[in-house]
């Protein structure tokens, strides 16, 4: 049986090599569909999509498609292989994603979508039943993962590469870090390189940093017990970006794998934010008295039963998101206290459990001693932090709200450390206004973003407006008619509907080779994180959005990350980093001024691991952090700060 499988793979590879140099361009005629074009060349629609991925979202008259010639036999082989395809019917559970299902069933996300067509434009819905193939083509040919050894640490296996339009031998050789001579030896029958060809390649020596597609990357070998999450935090890259750069991760992370990682030190655009002036308060310390801090967090210890075992505690924490958030934030606070101690700041830290209850907060205010308290950090939730600030206003004790994004009624002692969503939106509109000269502005906004659309139209009266249909579809002709080939096109996309975002980004991506397009939004909401929104599309469109924090630099913050890992055994998540940044900023401000109020009045802007702080006095009382980052995706899927 094994011999038959090997023979089949050998014959399939031979067929691909023989077919590799036969192709042509097809000019799309008005009214033609991908199904008709595939039938015309005796290939499957999926084969057409393989060579023209953007065609899956639609084709345009006069557009060019790469079409393989004489591929009918290959399609027949593939089709026969799927005649007996078996499926698992899976009912979607809460919090499940396409990525988690692909890992659970060892199939690719693309295979799940292929057999559930609605998932190309819709998100998974809890309770729905979907078909999952028992194994994907990639899984069928996947070899067992051997244990790492000196001889197989780096993947030198032979693989196939489909030549893209405008690719050169030099570009391919740099992509796989091998010489042009190696490419020619691997493909002795290759003459002129043409789009659509399937050639044989292999990875070269991946230990060194190589130039790929004009961007610098480094390669990293996965260590035992590492996870995708720990890698994203270590290298300051999102999970989707990591998977997009390393498609093999769709089949799971394995020890010994070699991953391509953006080399943040050398990547274009990194460091632009350094142009902004930040104050290093470590150099301005003059108040070395012990700092008395009170930390108020909803640990919800009241929900834990005394008779519970440690395993039960762990289960309860996992199920209680607020408790988990509090513990992560608290771990960052302790790191900040330790870091402050190394530079001469002593801290007396008291921790109080608010139990997510304003009544409990009032009880704590009346029973705990708040004399000589320099600052209170927390509580986390809106109702409880407001209760704490009101109760301590008469004592003039500053209360720092670390996560709340809504402004409360004016209180003189209230310091809001997170900018509001409105401030993020205003920062983005200001950024667009400051850089819109010579740009063609187009606004795509649906009914869910009606107020934002009105504000954008008022701010940019010459901008062209495109309104998606109620079903979430974009009028492609209207979008194309609004674009300008003579100027950069800045497209402002406003919606919280996955269908609208998926439809718009896919279509704009298909136009990006013909037009200069930059995609922007004033609100990067949770819908942008859907599996249906392609990060590679966002990267190609140089997606810009406002953010409270940035991805931390793993090189510049290596000491912090290393100490955190040594103390807790995991890489810090965003809540832990937030706890560190807020607390360390408070301690340094207290050490560089008479009190916290004096420090924030000095209008000193500070920046730490992921967050920056610049407090402004609210006209009706209190202070709010007005610091907002404008971030953008690069083609290499690396985030950079543009403002």
TrEMBL record:
<dbReference type="InterPro" id="IPR036779">
    <property type="entry name" value="LysM_dom_sf"/>
</dbReference>
<feature type="domain" description="LysM">
    <location>
        <begin position="159"/>
        <end position="209"/>
    </location>
</feature>
<feature type="region of interest" description="Disordered">
    <location>
        <begin position="131"/>
        <end position="151"/>
    </location>
</feature>
<dbReference type="Pfam" id="PF01476">
    <property type="entry name" value="LysM"/>
</dbReference>
<feature type="domain" description="LysM">
    <location>
        <begin position="88"/>
        <end position="132"/>
    </location>
</feature>
<dbReference type="InterPro" id="IPR028082">
    <property type="entry name" value="Peripla_BP_I"/>
</dbReference>
<keyword id="KW-0732">Signal</keyword>
<feature type="domain" description="LysM">
    <location>
        <begin position="24"/>
        <end position="67"/>
    </location>
</feature>
<protein>
    <submittedName>
        <fullName>LysM peptidoglycan-binding domain-containing protein</fullName>
    </submittedName>
</protein>
<dbReference type="InterPro" id="IPR018392">
    <property type="entry name" value="LysM"/>
</dbReference>
<feature type="signal peptide">
    <location>
        <begin position="1"/>
        <end position="20"/>
    </location>
</feature>
<feature type="domain" description="LysM">
    <location>
        <begin position="218"/>
        <end position="261"/>
    </location>
</feature>
